[in-house]
């Protein structure tokens, strides 16, 4: 494997990793928002 092929693989891996991290943070934010919404709805139901 030549160095430029290695570089390409590294760049692709970095893109995949950043996508994965972005997805993880999006999931975390979504679950946090759902938790807050759930609390709000339960609070409203209790009056």
Automatic annotation (TrEMBL):
It comes from the Bacteria. This is Uncharacterized protein.
């Amino acid at each position: 494997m030549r160095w430029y092929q290695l570089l390409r693989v590294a760049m692709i891996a970095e893109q995949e990793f950043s996508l994965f991290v972005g997805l993880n943070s999006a999931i975390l934010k979504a679950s946090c928002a759902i938790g807050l919404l759930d609390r709000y709805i339960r609070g409203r139901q209790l009056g």
